[in-house]
Amino acid sequence: MNPTIGMLTVRVLLGRRRAWLLAALPAVLLVLTVILRFTVDESGRSDAAPHILGVLGLATVIPLLGLIAGTGAIGGEIDDGSIIYLLAKPVNRHSIVVTKLAVAAALVSALGALPVLVAGWILVGGQDNLALGYALGALVAGITYCAGFLLLAVVTRNAVVIGLIYALVWETAIGSIVPGAQTLSIQQWSMALTRIVVGDSADALDVTAAVRPQVALPLLLVVVVGSTAYAGHRLRSLRVTSAE
Amino acid sequence: MSTIEVVAASRWFGDVVALNDVSMRIAPGVTGLLGPNGAGKSTLIAMMAGFLAPSSGSVVLDGAPVWRREEVYRQIGVVPETEAAYDVVTGWTFVLAMARLQRLPDPAAAARRALELVEMSDAADREIGTYSKGMKQRVKMASALVHDPAVLLLDEPFNGMDPRQRLHLMRLLTEMGEAGRTVLFSSHILEEVEEIAGTIEVVVAGRHAASGDFRQIRRLMTERPHQFTVTSSDDRALAAAVVADGVASAVELGEVLHVQAADHGRFVHVLPVLARQHGIRLFEVAPADESLESVFAYLVGRPGGAR
């Protein structure tokens, strides 16, 4: 971790109105839950919660935030060449990646996981730990998306497109048609953790996950640690030259 | 005192050879890396700065390779050609951050000193995005100087500078060279390079074309035969007349007439006389090769020119 790189990353990520655009995503989630709070009765809200928190929160807001924060934490600097100012320093390349991941993960936690927690609380209060469960799922998913998309941004200039295709096409569209695809889905792995927190009432509430927690947790760890380590490795030999 | 040595270094990107078997030694003082656009100057600087591995050969700084060694950046300062430099932060924040990343004992003092050196103290509180090209160049320079490096590598540093800024940077580089630092900058403009560089390395089409002080390089460039393209009412007759006179060392008749003359002054004097004698009307006489690219092409093409 390097505080100076952290500061620069925050400034780049949130600079120039980008902060407002990022805040729009959780705002949609919160506005919708507030409307539901005042228009739908308690049992209706309880039924709606897994859909709002799961589909809108964990399956939409979180991957999009993870994509923007994960790729934005390093992709912009690689694209415009300013990464050269970090690379021309006696700074360990892995610490650059870890710092940028920490900033991106903090952003997704603040603008993603926290709003999911608040939204869940507004909808159902403390019922069945739903709010807490989805918030934990969102937190873990957010960190994992950030790590994966950050690696993508180091490896390819098309990180945003590939990331979008993964999150929207693979996880959401293909995942809902081909059940097997769900076993390779950050969203489903994270839902396995949500199920643990929600506990026995998970099935009744329709909180589902395609994989068991014993499988999900190692996979999440492998993606976070593996992506971060490999991104640092790739950064060591990143080709920085305008002469091509 | 530090020395960079490039030893038989080549670099290719897929099928494209960007640098072809280049060897040179950059000693303390100011060295100019001269060559037309696309000659491989940036590739060479990127290799010296440790941002690019040579496909074959090696680049060493004081005997140790620069590739994949982060510690070399305590000794090296880099001013990249790319214009982007954290546009959303102020010049002060940027240079201070660079000082911190160098782990200097007193980063604030170092940042202040570097900004003063490039005369950017007054504008330091403005966002870099609001700077002119020349100001950006100077802030980039401050960021590279902040840790007082023994080696300074600058890729096209004079691009986008106005004459006053240019003079200031030239003075700065000269002072650094005199102080025993190893300063290397690239340029495609001969006048820029010969103004301040004690040594000039010429790179053309990925090859090391020439090396020497500015007098030697200047002589190589001016003592070459001159090319002219001529169009007239009767190119064939004019070609015959020019050859018969002996003023041309070579003539090529195509859609237009290409003449190569060893003596520039005599050729422009004799040509109209010959035309009148033979009743030929001259439509156009143009020096074909006054562009720097053709000068470089000549340097590479001359026998024993490329090494």
What tags apply to this protein structure?
heterodimer; A: 244 residues; mainly alpha; 10 helices; B: 307 residues; alpha/beta; six-stranded mixed beta sheet; four-stranded antiparallel beta sheet; elongated
What does this structure look like?
The complex is a heterodimer of chains A (244) and B (307). The mean pLDDT of chain A is 91. With 244 residues, chain A is an all-alpha fold. In chain A, helix 3 (42-72) packs parallel to helix 7. Chain A has helices at residues 3-14, 18-39, 42-72, 75-80, 84-87, 93-124, 130-155, 159-177, 186-198, 213-236. Chain A has 10 helices and no strands. Chain B has 10 helices and 14 strands. Chain B has helices at residues 41-48, 91-101, 107-117, 133-145, 163-178, 190-196, 214-222, 235-245, 264-277, 292-301; strands at 4-13, 16-26, 29-34, 56-61, 64-65, 76-79, 151-154, 182-187, 199-204, 207-212, 226-232, 248-253, 257-261, 282-287. In chain B, the strands form 3 sheets. Chain B has a 6-stranded mixed beta sheet with strand order 6-7-8-3-9-10, sandwiched between helices. A 4-stranded antiparallel beta sheet of chain B has the order 2-1-4-5, covered by helices on one side. In chain B, strands 12-13-11-14 form a 4-stranded antiparallel beta sheet, covered by helices on one side. In chain B, strand 1 (4-13) and strand 2 form a beta hairpin. The longest helix of chain B has 16 residues, at 163-178. The model of chain B has no long low-confidence stretch (mean pLDDT 88). The interface between A and B is large, with 31 and 40 residues.
Element layout with pairings:
The complex is a heterodimer of chains A (244) and B (307).
Chain A: H1 3-14, H2 18-39, H3 42-72, H4 75-80, H5 84-87, H6 93-124, H7 130-155, H8 159-177, H9 186-198, H10 213-236
Helix pairs in contact in A: 1-6, 2-3, 2-6, 3-6, 3-7, 3-8, 6-7, 6-10, 7-8, 7-9, 7-10, 9-10
Chain B: E1 4-13, E2 16-26, E3 29-34, H1 41-48, E4 56-61, E5 64-65, E6 76-79, H2 91-101, H3 107-117, H4 133-145, E7 151-154, H5 163-178, E8 182-187, H6 190-196, E9 199-204, E10 207-212, H7 214-222, E11 226-232, H8 235-245, E12 248-253, E13 257-261, H9 264-277, E14 282-287, H10 292-301
Parallel strand pairs in B: 3-8, 3-9, 6-7, 7-8
Antiparallel strand pairs in B: 1-2, 1-4, 4-5, 9-10, 11-13, 11-14, 12-13
